[in-house]
Amino acid sequence: MLFIIILAGLPVNVLGQDDYEEALLKQFHQISSHEMYDWVETLSAPEFNGRMAGSPGGLAAAKWLASHLKDWGIQPGGTDSTYFQWFDIGYNEFHELGGLCLHIPGEGTRSIQKCYTFPDNFFPGMNTGSGEITAEVIYVGYGITAPEHGYDDYEGMDVKGKIVLVNRDAPYKETTSFDFEQWVRYCYHHYKLENAVKHGAKGFIYIAGNHANPNIAHDPDIIVAGIGPEALNDFFANVEMDNAEILEKINSTMKPHSFSMGNMVTMKANTTWHPDGKACNVIGYIEGSDSELKDEVIIIGGHYDAVGNCSVLLPGALDNASGTIDILAVAKAMSQSGISLKRSVMFLFIGGEEVGLLGSQSYVENPTFLKENTICYINLDMVGNGTGFSLGSGKTHPELLKFFEEANNRFLHRTFRSSEERENYGRPRSDGEIFKRNGYRALGMGLTGWNKPVNYHQPNDQADLTIDPEIMEDVTKLLFVALTNMARAEHLELE
User: Is residue 345 a contact partner of residue 285, using CB atoms and an 8 Å limit?
Assistant: First the structure.
């Protein structure tokens, strides 16, 4: 057990109180929304090609981040005294957008093709195989084969050489969280695609998939796409129930409801798969000055990767250049403040979040600092527009929450919300969840009152459309003050 008394703002280092306040305020006022916005634009620019994990653009972004840490004298925390912690991940290169067309019966033997527009009603699978297929569409519900539950969406359905239409997640009815936990492995996108391939499908269409999703398996022998609402309505035009009604029936009975839709669809993609891609976390830290407390670390992190380029750039400004740049600006401020810290503070720029939380998993398996010496992990994801602050799991860790509340009350005066830690029984969907499941105290720095569009995994996730630089500046100022005081505190009391 680690014992701590929170003494935020007390003069615990060599600086006198007046000198400390002067240094804190000087650096506080040097944090610039203009500089931060420029950084967001740079990270979202074509130079980094959507920052797909494993791709040259993703690696270029990692090196760009590391160059700033080096310039500011922040110590490397990766492998072999570098800023990088490497892992393997393949990536797709798109040569054209591809397409998806529904064949609508006309007079006689003729048919009319209705081809769907990108990005509203068609989105290419980011890890799709390459080629073209015209085939019958088979609806397979959740796309799950779970013999231990007596459930199989593919039972009695011949999908060999055909196209399957699949929903995300898993069937459920009013049940305990423990029961649903048994279904979690079937919620993963990788599983659903691999199960379709196992049953012989040559095409895979994801419902509600009208955005980029690289968190799915690659198989060279199957074409993958996502569809939006208009295409979904067209697919169900001659079916008695719509998709929502069928899912309700599946959920209530826990029995599959698969069928041939009577539709013919053409899918095409033109890509090259690169299996030998490399991705990395970028890790830097400021070492504490106290001979004992320097082994303790506060980690602030977020993913810098985005969803790439499907022949159209997906800039990833809000998701997650915003969180990345918040962290980068905190790193600059803390490294240049001249304020000595007792504890170490780590800046963890995570790769491979969008492809399955690979970077955060890589870190918890090979941590720079011991887990038992980690005060907390603070995750930033899509922290780029809004009007107020939030701290997820803050109420569960009140001894840490105080630093953030005091910083806001003293300097920023924005609305501030916090929540209890919530149990997530589904598949993990954030880097913070990976840390929490591996025994770390994990908090999430977020915003309330979004005042600009989100444009999730879309081509218009652009800085000028989705980013509010003033709130980003205030997030950085809040974190700079809170983390500086936390790192300087003489004692902390954490269970």
Answer: yes
- Among the residues of 423-468, which ranges form H helices? 431-437, 463-466
Q: For residue 150, what are the contacts with CB-CB under 8 A and spacing of at least 6?
A: none
- How far apart are the C-alpha atoms of 278 and 72, rounded to whole Å? 26
Q: How many domains does the chain have?
A: 2
Distance CA 495, CA 399 (A): 10
The answer as to whether 268 is a domain residue is yes
In sequence order, the β-bridge partners of residue 134 are 266
Residues 42 and 56: their CA atoms lie apart, in Å, by 16
The reply to whether 408 and 431 lie within a common domain is yes
pLDDT digits (tens, 9 = 90+) for 115-156: 999 999 999 999 999 999 999 999 999 999 999 999 999 999
Residues contacting 294, CB < 8 A, separation 6+: 287, 288, 342, 343, 344
Residue spans of beta strands (DSSP E) within 403-490: 416-418, 442-448
Rounded to an integer, what distance in angstroms lies between the CA atom of residue 448 and that of residue 388? 5
H or E stretch covering 327: helix 323-336
The answer to whether the predicted template modeling score (pTM) of the entire model surpasses 0.90 is yes
Q: HSE-up of 94 (CA within 13 Å, CB side)? A: 25
Give yes or no: residues 372 and 417 share one domain: yes
